[in-house]
Amino acid sequence: MPELPEVETTKAGIEPYVVGSVVKSVVVRQPKLRWPIPLDKMELLQGATVLSVKRRGKYILLEVPEGALLIHLGMSGSMRVLTSYQEPNKHDHVDICLESGQVVRFTDPRRFGSILWQEKAEIHPLLAALGPEPLSESFDAQYLAACCKGKAVPIKQLIMNSKVVVGVGNIYASESLFKAGIDPRRASGRISLVRLSVLVEEIKKVLSLAIEQGGTTLKDFVNSEGKPGYFKQSLNVYGRAGEPCLNCHSILKEVKLGQRGTVYCQSCQH
DNA sequence: AAAGACACCTGGGAGC
DNA sequence: TGCTCCCAGGTGTCTT
Fold first, then answer.
1. What are phi and psi of A189, to 5 degrees?
2. Which of A104, A123, A171, A213 has the fewest Cβ atoms nearer than 10 Å?
């Protein structure tokens, strides 16, 4: 489940191999991802030099003079760099072949990911309404409080809303709410500024730590699974329903919020 | 306007 | 052991 740390790690992992490189060809074996891959646009990449690799939310942008390739890993996607050609496996849907001979390979068993095209000097509609980056200064307590004001929506759903803040998925939303001691079901508008401030800090902390740990696996990025091992980060609540709280030992409870499994501690989170 | 349901897809675990 | 069933999960879109 790529959340922001995994996307950041992936971006950092491919960056040194693609920036300044010339794209020889893009091989699409399976165009049916979340949306069809725009094959005509892929031709614009041929012969193009990759200018930069950027990340916006969970999207990775490969920028070339004509525009940018927009990549989302969905929930089972990954990318890796091959230094020599290898036979593709079943879910290796796209290869970005570089003139250097290296290949950036996109793999996605569940095909929830997407590969799209953003025109030069335009902002793709999918990126247009995104909220601030969680690790940026503009994501602070004042901002979050303004988003929460008067809202009845549970706080967990609010922080997972990409219009509010990008990159906070189910795992990190659950974990940061536990750390902040806030009940995930609590109405967003009924949380004090002080507590929201703690939540903001916990979101930043949990994401930063995961990115840091993802970075330690970069050495394995090439010719590997392409799956950063940031899951080593200990999870307090996610996936632990029915098990004892690591803080108070009461049994962790699971509820559905916005169709998402949500685990929390009834005695530590209010 | 806001909240909920649904859709996409497949591997993997549960149940038989 | 093998088959079927069901679900997770990010996020856009359609329905209340």
1. -75, -5
2. A123
User: What is d(CA A73, CA A110) in angstroms, rounded to the nearest whole number?
Assistant: 10
Burial class (CB in 10 A: 0-12, 13-18, 19+), A183: middle
- The predicted model scores a pTM of 0.92
The whole-angstrom separation of Cα A250 and Cα A216 is 34
Dump pLDDT digits (tens) for A101-124: 999 999 998 888 999 999 998 889
What backbone torsions phi and psi does residue A157 show, to the nearest 5 degrees? -65, -35
Looking across all nucleic acid strands, the nucleotide with the smallest C1' to CA distance from residue A2 is C10
Helices A193-215 and A141-148 sit at what angle, rounded to 10 degrees?
120
Strand B nucleotides in reach of protein CB atoms, 7 A cut-off:
2-11
Contacts of A114 (CB under 8 A, 6+ apart): A33, A34, A35, A70, A71, A72, A74
Residue A21 Cβ < 7 Å to strand C? no
Distance of CA A132 to the CA centre of its chain: 14
